[in-house]
Amino acid sequence: MKVSKRGNVPPFFVMEVMRAAFARERAGLEVLHLEVGQPSTGAPAAVREAAKAALDADKLGYTDALGIPPLREAIAGWYRDRYGITVPAGRVAVTTGSSGAFQLGFLAAFDPGDRVAMASPSYPAYRHTLTAIGVEPVELETGPNHRFQPTVELLEKLDKPIQGLIVASPANPTGTMLSRAELTALARWCEANGVRLVSDEIYHGLTYGPEAVTAAEVSPHALVVNSFSKYFSMTGWRLGWMVVPDDLLRSVECLAQNLFISAPTLSQMAAVAAFGCTAELDGHVARYARNRELLLRELPRAGFTKLAPADGAFYVYADVSDMTDDSEAFCQRLLAETGIAATPGVDFDPARGRRFVRFSFAGAEDTVAEAARRLIVWRTET
């Protein structure tokens, strides 16, 4: 029987690490989870209460493909209150997580054979989703000198035209950010060259100094993706959104109708309350900031001295080339010998990731502190 080639994409290695970590836990052994970008906290209290009320009062049928009006209006209000810009609720599309947003956005914006550029390292699902729909990922090799972000200079060195550019600020796995001037320069280059800018903003709200800038402010043509999973601490609710340019809106709507029907109704109804929970959510950010400070202080004591800046998100990306040339084996050994689960860099950079490891500091403070202590002991003993 025929099997489609679309599924011939690499695995998402962080999920493979999680599988090994869960197997260890089932065997009765402890795991300190620094592998996954998932808050250790649950959804805000008001969201949970709204979900209970919705369960009692509503049959939870299908919604409009682009989302329920109260949630789309609340998201538009978020851009007004947080960024000081006007985003019409009619340009907001509620999606099944940011993953659903990327699928809809990529399908609406790009055709098979198109080329879409992104930084390397970057979130692996960009590459894999584009590959599955016949679009060629074009990786821009970035490093500390680029702060692991795309630049106009790197784009101008490409030997063939591209049709899209994906940016993420804060970025996964590095936590680095684009300044307003840098994002504006990239947006202007995209407009001048007929390139669709896709901005992954799911880590907005998780910053430790610099303020995140939305591409919706610098370009009316940008496709902006966000999520309730990270800042709003709602990973399992599978809810995200897009700010969609006018020329893509009908395509996104028709694709959503056919591929998803609508995002989960219960999640949509509950999420309206999330925008009133900033005091609770900012408390989580303060915890991430303490975890970040601890890792940036303690990791060098364990020999991890070459670290990305981690200006936002909740990751530290470490160059471990002086310890190993096989980060996957390194992480397997780390889990087996210390109980610490971390993600090998091959997830984010197929070419150079064998010498990088990502540590997440989204967990509880005692978990991160104990992991740092064990790393220091492990590195001292080995």
Write down the overall geometry.
Answer: globular
User: In angstroms, what is the radius of gyration?
Assistant: 20 Å
Strand content: 5-15%
Helix amount, in percent? 40-55%
Which stretches are poorly predicted, pLDDT < 50 over at least 5 residues? none
Mean pLDDT: 95
Q: Helical region count? A: 13
Question: How many strands in all?
Answer: 13
CATH class of the largest domain: Alpha Beta
Query: What is the CATH-assigned architecture of the largest domain?
Result: 3-Layer(aba) Sandwich
The N- to C-terminal Cα distance equals 50 Å
Keywords:
alpha/beta; Aspartate Aminotransferase, domain 2; seven-stranded mixed beta sheet; 14% strand
Describe the fold and architecture.
- This protein has 2 domains: 5-43 and 278-381, 3-Layer(aba) Sandwich (Aspartate Aminotransferase, domain 2), CATH 3.40.640.10; 45-276, Aspartate Aminotransferase, domain 2.
- Helices cover 41% and strands 14% of the residues.
- It is built from 13 helices and 13 strands.
- The chain has helices at residues 13-26, 45-57, 69-83, 97-109, 124-132, 152-156, 180-192, 215-218, 246-259, 265-271, 278-298, 327-338, 365-381, and strands at 32-33, 92-95, 115-120, 136-141, 164-168, 196-200, 223-227, 240-243, 306-307, 315-319, 340-341, 343-344, 356-360.
- The protein has a 7-stranded mixed beta sheet, with helices on both faces. A 4-stranded antiparallel beta sheet has the order 9-10-13-12. Strands 1-11 form a two-stranded parallel sheet.
- Strand 5 (164-168), helix 7 (180-192) and strand 6 form a beta-alpha-beta unit.
- Helix 4 (97-109) packs across helix 5 and helix 11 (278-298) runs parallel beside helix 13.
